[in-house]
Amino acid sequence: MAGSFCFLSALVLLVNMAAALLTPPALPPGLASVGASADDGEVDFFFFPFLVLYKSGLVQRFIGTDTVPASTDAATGVTSRDVVVNAATGLAVRLYLPPSLATNRTGTDTDDSGGRLPLLVFYHGGAFVTESAFSPTYHRYLNALVSRARVLAVSVEYHLAPEHRLPTAYDDAWAALRWALANTRRAGTGTDPWLSRHADPARLFLAGDSAGGNIAHYVALRAGRDGLDCDDGAAAVRGLVLLDPYFWGKRPVPSETSDEDIRRWHERTWSFLCGGRYGIDDPVINPVPMPPEEWRRLPCTRVLVTVAGLDMLSARGRAYVHALRASGWQGEAELYETPGEYHVYFLNKPDSDEAAKEMEVVVNFINGDQVSTRG
After folding, report:
1. If you write DSSP's letter for every residue of 208-251 in order, what string do you get?
2. In angstroms, rounded to a whole number, what is the distance separating the alpha carbons of residues 193 and 217?
């Protein structure tokens, strides 16, 4: 696990991981034979550094495949457990309870505060093709966030491309949110005991990093269009948290690269992820030029976007905030920038001072405190 983590950190520093900006013309020497046979045939697509898809249909992932079981975390006292949302499709989630509620695995102990907790639905990153709600990276991050922010978190194990190309991840994300809200009703057969006892659907937060930030944005817009009523009254999205979100577009926004090779590579990888279903300027990948009335569909009154100064995706994150502010949307859009850091550095260097500061920003946002803009 430690070796894999260091390897991932090095990759981020070298290639700005989730942006996957450049691809070599062929697999590196020796890599093509790892886990594949001669029968697998030619390479169909090499998505550096995440995976290779062979024309036979075989997919080899090189990073982000480790998982850890749900547990009671020794460092934070947070307890987690896994739930299958849909047995037919395999959609699952990992639930997290903060320490004062996590003294047993059923979550039936009385909340010391006598109240319910904000409900955080989280979508992991990984370029839509790798990582997991059960990975050590996201398990550690959610344990820390749940402990600090005192929320009940639902981390979604959505299906990955290319086996399940977009919009499968979007549909999974929406289904998991609907399941979580349905289970917040206070009593009833089949309700989840943690959600029904402790989650407050009127204090709902949607969050994600990188590709997960893209998903969280999509889910928020869909919630604004379709509504989020639940059994015990209307759910309310209090806030949207986009951590180094993955957005792109045909034409560069201010301070974004104009290198044609890089921009073509982004288009190719996006087409790979969605099987050509969405163009590079579709609002699911490029919300910046959306009409004002579309921006105003966001059902929350607060949005937090974080960017890292050395991340090529940071320009589009800033443009997202500027477009939202200019749309007439009646809310507060906050931007937090960490200079001198790369994409999702807070996952790869979780013990750094900068990661601790970013965690504090997210916690304060969830708890309703003002976020100071940096950069």
Report:
1. EETHHHHHHHHHHHHHHHH--EETTEE--EEEEEEES-----SS
2. 28
- Residues designated catalytic: 210
Question: What pLDDT does 179 receive?
Answer: 95
Q: CA 172, CA 161: separation in Å to the nearest integer?
A: 12
What's the pTM? 0.88
Whole-Å CA distances, 178 to 46, 146, 148, 367? 35, 21, 25, 23
Full DSSP string of 26-71? SPPTTTTTTT--GGG-SEEEEETTTEEEETTS-EEE-SS-------
Strands 233-234 and 332-338 turn out to be unpaired
Can you tell me which residue has the tokens 């399941």? 179
Task: Give which of 88, 242, 224, 77 is closest to 147, Cα–Cα.
Answer: 77
DSSP symbols for 113-157: TSS-EEEEEEE--STTTS--TTSHHHHHHHHHHHHHHT-EEEEEE
Selection from 236, 302, 59, 248 nearest residue 160 by Cα? 59
- Cβ burial, residue 375 (10 Å; 0-12/13-18/19+): middle
Sheet hosting strand 302-308, strand order edge to edge: 79-86, 91-97, 152-157, 117-123, 199-209, 237-243, 302-308, 332-338
pLDDT at 188 over 70: no
Q: In 3D, which of 280, 257, 253, 254 has the Cα closest to residue 269? A: 280
For the chain, give every domain's residue range. Answer: 79-98+114-367
In which element (H, E) is residue 335 found? strand 332-338
CATH of 79-98+114-367, one of 3.40.50.300, 3.40.50.2300, 3.40.50.1820, 3.60.150.10: 3.40.50.1820
pLDDT tens across 54-113, in order? 999 999 999 999 999 999 999 999 999 999 999 999 999 999 999 977 554 444 444 444
Pairwise CA distance, residues 9 & 222, whole Å: 34
